[in-house]
TrEMBL record:
Entry superkingdom: Eukaryota
Coiled-coil zones: none
GO annotations of cellular component type: cytoplasm
Name of the protein in its database record: Cell division cycle protein 123 homolog
C-alpha cells in the first residue's frame, strides 16, 4: 500500500467521481485553527455559554484558611477559554440544514465511530456543530487521520513526512442503515475477489437465505459503476443494499492492513492463492464469482468491537492482559486490601465480643 492509494481513498478525491451512487455530502475545508483545536489536549467545546467574569473570585471564595475546599468548587468553572470559529461554524450550520437537519460526520478517511458512546443516543447522528465537535474531539480514529494517515504505507519515511494533507470535514446526509445490509467488497488487480458482511460480529439469517441475490447485486453494481472508474487497481469499497437490485456506495478504503479485513485475513487477501469463490465456466472463459463470507450460525456471537473504546484504558488492559505490569500492580493492591481487611477484622472482633458479653 502506497501513500497514493491512501490519498485516492480520501473522501474529496472520490466523491466527485461517484456522486450519483452515494449519499449526498458536503465537504468543508478545515481552517488551521480548527485543526489545532482538534489536536490540542482537553475537551472544551466552542460556543458553550460559560460566563468567565462571574467566576473571577471563585478560587478565593473556596479557600478556607490555607486550604482549598474542593467540595464547594463551582463545577461550571471553565478549564480553558472556549475557542471560537464563527465563520466555520456558520458554514457547518448551513450545511446541516442543506442536508436535512441530521448529518453523519467524518474527516478525509475516518468517522469517529470509536466515540459514538459519548453521544446522547450512542450514534454519530449530529444536528448541530457542538455534536460534531464533541465526537471529533473524543475520537482516536480522528486523531489517527490527523497525525498518521500514512502509517502503514511502504513509501520512504522522509517522503511521507513531507506530504501536506488538505483536511476536510465531511458532512453526509444521515441515513438509517440496517447494519445487516452493509457489505465490504475487496477488489484486487481490477477483480472483485471477496465480499463480506460489514458488521461481522452479528448473525443475520437473512444474509444466508439471500446470499446469491446479494452477491449478484453487488457484482452488477461493481461492473456498472465502480470497475475502471476508481483510479487504483486494488481497493476496498463498502456498500449498502437497500433492496433487491438497489445498492448504495458508502466508502472507499485502501487495499491493505489499515482497512479491517473483517472475516478475511490480510494474509489471504494479499497472498497469491485464489480465494474460495465459485468458478463459473462459460464455454472457454472462466468467470470467478467472489468469495462471500458472513456469519452462518447464531452461536458464538462476538462482542461489539467498539465496546472497549467506552471504557477506561486501564480496564481494557487488565481484561485483555495487554499490560502485565498493571495486572501485577492490581494483584498487589488486592493482596494489600485483603491484608487490611484481615487486620481490621482482628481488631473489631474483640469489640463485638465484648459488646455481646455486656
Ligand atoms: N450517511 C450516513 N448516515 C448514517 N450512518 C452512516 C452514514 N454513512 C456511514 N454510516 C455508518 O457508519 C459506518 C462507518 O462509515 P464509514 O465507512 O464512512 O466510516 P469509516 O471511518 O471510513 O469506517 P471504516 O474505517 O470501517 O471504513 C458505516 O458502516 C455505516 O454503518
Ligand atoms: Mg472507510
Amino acid at each position: 500500500m502506497k501513500v497514493e492509494n491512501v490519498l485516492n481513498c480520501s473522501f474529496s478525491s472520490w466523491y466527485s467521481l461517484f456522486k450519483d451512487i452515494t449519499t449526498k455530502s458536503i465537504v468543508i475545508p478545515l481552517p488551521q485553527e480548527f485543526l489545532e483545536y482538534l489536536l490540542c489536549d482537553g475537551l472544551v467545546l466552542p460556543e458553550q455559554a460559560v460566563d468567565v467574569s462571574s467566576n473571577e473570585n471563585a478560587d478565593e471564595d473556596n479557600i478556607i484558611g490555607d486550604e482549598i475546599d474542593w467540595s464547594t468548587e463551582d463545577i461550571s468553572t471553565p478549564v480553558a477559554e472556549p475557542p471560537k470559529f464563527p465563520d466555520f461554524e456558520n458554514i457547518v450550520k448551513k450545511s446541516i440544514q442543506k442536508l436535512g437537519g441530521c448529518v453523519f460526520p467524518k474527516l478525509n478517511w475516518s468517522a469517529p465511530r470509536d466515540a459514538a458512546w459519548i453521544s446522547f443516543d450512542k450514534t454519530l447522528k449530529c444536528t448541530c456543530p457542538s455534536d460534531i465537535y464533541l465526537l471529533l474531539k473524543s475520537s482516536d480514529f480522528i486523531t489517527h487521520d490527523l497525525t498518521q494517515p500514512f502509517a502503514l504505507c511502504e513509501d520512504d519515511e522522509n517522503y511521507k513526512n513531507d506530504i501536506h494533507v488538505k483536511y476536510d470535514l465531511v458532512l453526509r446526509k444521515w441515513r438509517e442503515f440496517n447494519p445487516s445490509n452493509e457489505f465490504r467488497c475487496f477488489v484486487k488487480n481490477g477483480s472483485l475477489i471477496g465480499i463480506c458482511q460489514r458488521h461481522h460480529t452479528m448473525y443475520c439469517s437473512f444474509i444466508g437465505q439471500h446470499k446469491d441475490e446479494i452477491v449478484a447485486d453487488i457484482q452488477a453494481f461493481f461492473y456498472h459503476f465502480i470497475q475502471g472508474n476508481f483510479p487504483d487497481k486494488s481497493y476496498v469499497f463498502d456498500v449498502y443494499r437497500r433492496d433487491q437490485g438497489k445498492i448504495l456506495l458508502i466508502d472507499f478504503n485502501p487495499f491493505g492492513e489499515v482497512t479491517d479485513g473483517l472475516l478475511f485475513s490480510w494474509e489471504e487477501l494479499l497472498g497469491d492463492e485464489r480465494l474460495n469463490g465459485t468458478i463459473l465456466s462459460n464455454g472457454e472463459d472462466e468467470l470467478q464469482v467472489p468469495a462471500f463470507r458472513y456469519i452462518e450460525k447464531s452461536s458464538g456471537v462476538q462482542p461489539n468491537p467498539y465496546t472497549t473504546y467506552a471504557m477506561p484504558k486501564d480496564f481494557v488492559d487488565l481484561a485483555t492482559g495487554e499490560d502485565p505490569q498493571k495486572l501485577i500492580d492490581f494483584l498487589r493492591l488486592k493482596v494489600q486490601e485483603q491484608g487490611a481487611e484481615d487486620s481490621s477484622d482482628d481488631e473489631s472482633t474483640p469489640e463485638i465480643n465484648s459488646l455481646q458479653g455486656q
